Amino acid sequence: xxxxxxxxxxxxxxxxxxxxxxxxxxxxxxxxxxxxxxxxxxxxxxxxxxxxxxxxxxxxxxxxxxxxxxxxxxxxxxxxx
Length: 81
Fold this sequence. Notes:
The structure is a single chain. The chain has 3 helices and 5 strands, in the order βαβααβββ. It has one domain (2-73): Ubiquitin-like (UB roll). With 81 residues, it is of the alpha+beta class. α1 runs antiparallel to α3 (40-48) and α2 (27-38) runs antiparallel to α3 (40-48). A hairpin with a 2-residue loop joins β3 and β4 (56-57).
């Protein structure tokens, strides 16, 4: 199944786009495919960040049926006072 994946911040910059398409049956499949396309740094950031499926945080092993909206967010750095 092909998914339209929304990317944020550093992931968007590495991919050069806010949205990309990827195939997979799980979130892991999508992250792996995008890492192959955009490189090791993309993979490191995607795995350290959060995955959101249909507005809810989801683990990499989440199965996908084909109708979900998938988004990848990089980790958020904490700010000091």
